Amino acid sequence: MNQNFHPFVIPFMLGVIFLVIVMIVRLVRWFRMMDKRQRVAVSRNIISFKTLKAIWETIRESLFHRNIFKTNFVLGYMHFCFAFGWLMLIVMGKVEEIFASGKIFTEPWLGIFFKYFEPIGEHYPLQGFFAFVMDLLLLFVLSGLILAFIKRSRSTILGLRKTTNHSPIDRTALTALWLIFPLRLFSESITASYKGNGGFLTQTIGNWLSVLPVETIELPAWWAYSIALCVFFALMPFTRYMHIFTEVLLIFLRKWKVVESAEKTGYTFIELYSCSRCGICIDTCQINSAANINNTQAVYFIRDVREEQLQDEIADNCLMCNRCTNACPVGIEQTQIRRIYRRKKGFDSEKLYDYIKPEAPKDAQAKVLYFAGCMSHLTPGIITAMKQILDNAKIDYHFLDEDKSICCGRPLKQQGFLEQANALMRKNSELINNAGGTVLVTSCPICYNSFAKDYNLSIPVMHHSQYIEQLLNEGKLKVSKKKELRIAYHDPCEISRGHNIYESPRNIITKVGELIPAGNEKDDSLCCGGSLANTIINPEQLTAIRNQTLDTLCINHPDILATSCPLCKKSFQRGGNTIKVMDIAELIALD
Asked: Which pairs from 44-48 meet CB under 8 Å and 24+ separation?
């Protein structure tokens, strides 16, 4: 028999071959499913510095897990142990094999099972060094395995309130993964007990095991190690562990400027299979923490899509606040993917919006176009304040939706009515373009997000907090005297995580009164509970979400709670709290 072969390597090789075949088939299918725009982005950017940037990001994220480290150091270390430690075991095993054999190309399994095939009594360069390093790497991976076990049984120790619930196939793959490294330690230690080729760890354990019939135990141990590898590799494409490969691919595609489409494409599946189910999104979700609903979070939505078991109530029960997307170490666009799977078809929409007349208004030459939005019409104090501000600053403006409320289309899009939203957006685009303004200002963050991302307007779009700050900086608007008011600010979801509009409202507040800290600010801001994206959650659960947010915002007992969203203002005013709630525009108009 070949001295570098034993039948126990066959399960390992079968698992690897199966994994490679499935991966190739899936990748070909996904690339064929990409739309034209996505394929063009790949072809234009694949040979560029973007590819070098993708390689660097792959090292940072797929090996070192920088984003997980930033969120949770212990969890980051655990993932780092498995990713970097296992890779280095493979790489160093191959290097040791080259030093021992003097050949670069040898049997593909030799580096994995080298300690079994290593000849007794034959010395090669750096033999002792390799024994030490390989044991150190194995110990490193085992330390991550211990943390993984703790995470499953006592997640709070790792800073997680909840961990993900696994399907049977995931649990089988997880069991195989957990067995791989202890079985490797046991197998190498058994072999070291009579070969004397172990390092500080395997040789010490091997000496302890020498009292056992090692000749009888050795081969079953190596068979078990090989079978564990086979099971894990064979199940990998059908479990969360597929992310080990697809996450790398996702990084490259993003660097090549591929973005999610409004329709399901191959890129959608690459995003879905890049989820490792780390569970970070569970703790960030207010539907879990405040409303006590624990089966609809991004990790479960993605799991159900992958397993083709998605129910409408899971897809629809989401605030679309982007807290999970912001927290996701991989940056999976969960909100956009939900929109795809909320898609509702078969509705005639073209005649629904005949009430919107695209003709240019009489004051069409106004430089500033003001769009209040539906929710501002339901909180008229904001509109009154904006009119006063624009008049005081002597701004030539046209109020686009003064006579009747006109929806921007985003609520329809969030609910999956894409055709209706697109038809409405076309009508609005005509109205805006025919008005002839040089800038569009809106008071509603939902409208701002829609105009900035979903429309293809020829003029810039500003949220009213940005425009008011601009007027103050240009001296067109003045604040007579700073008041003795302690003001906390709430960052609305649509302009915080959506567009990073953090400083403009705060700069306005500092001119009016004292800006005081609030809980969960900026990227970490909480939802007001008035989300228009969720039609499943009941009023009591929305109230719980709103109250959770109010508690964090009022932690330092402000005189005024300020926000820059009419929907947030209306939600907080219903909270029964005695604190006064005002929009940024109302703060300035009061002066």
From this structure: 44/256, 44/257, 45/255, 45/256, 45/257, 46/256
Q: How far apart are CA 223 and CA 273, in angstroms?
A: 31
| 3-class DSSP string for 161-174 | CCCCCCCHHHHHHH
What residues in the chain have per-residue pLDDT under 50?
1
What strand order describes the sheet that includes 560-563?
Answer: 514-515, 486-489, 560-563, 580-583
CATH architecture assigned to 368-471: 3-Layer(aba) Sandwich (3.40)
Per-residue tokens: 200:
């500080």
- How many Å apart are CA 245 and CA 237, to the nearest integer? 9
Residues 6+ apart with CB under 8 A from 386: 370, 372, 443, 464, 585, 589
Residue 324 · residue 524 · CB < 8 Å: no
Strand order in the sheet with 461-463: 397-399, 368-371, 439-442, 461-463
pLDDT at residue 1, rounded to an integer: 36
Joined tokens for residue 210: 């020498």
Residue 479 backbone phi and psi in degrees, to 5: -105, 120
Whether residue 432 contacts residue 408, with contact meaning beta carbons closer than 8 Å, is answered with: no
Q: Which residues contact 21 (CB under 8 A, 6 or more apart)?
A: none
Instruction: Say which residues have a Cβ less than 8 Å from residue 36's Cβ, sequence separation at least 6.
Output: none
Whether 254 contacts 288, CB under 8 Å: no
Question: How far is CA 419 from each of CA 186, 267, 348, 407, rounded to the nearest angstrom?
Answer: 60, 22, 8, 15
The answer to whether the beta carbons of residues 459 and 431 sit under 8 Å apart is no
CA nearest to 84, candidates 106, 108, 66: 66
Instruction: Report H helices in 290-417.
Output: 298-306, 312-316, 323-327, 334-341, 374-378, 380-392, 410-414
The answer to whether residues 147 and 81 touch, using CB atoms and an 8 Å cutoff, is yes
* Class of the CATH domain delimited by 480-589: alpha beta
Q: State the Cα angle at 381 between 376 and 383, rounded to 5°.
A: 50
CA end-to-end distance (rounded Å), the chain:
92
Beta partners for residue 442, in sequence order: 371, 463
Counting every residue written for the chain, the total comes to 591
CATH 3.40.50.1860 domain range(s) in the chain: 368-471
For residues 514 and 487, the answer to whether their CB atoms sit within 8 Å is yes
pLDDT tens per residue, range 293-325: 988 999 999 999 998 888 888 888 999 999 999
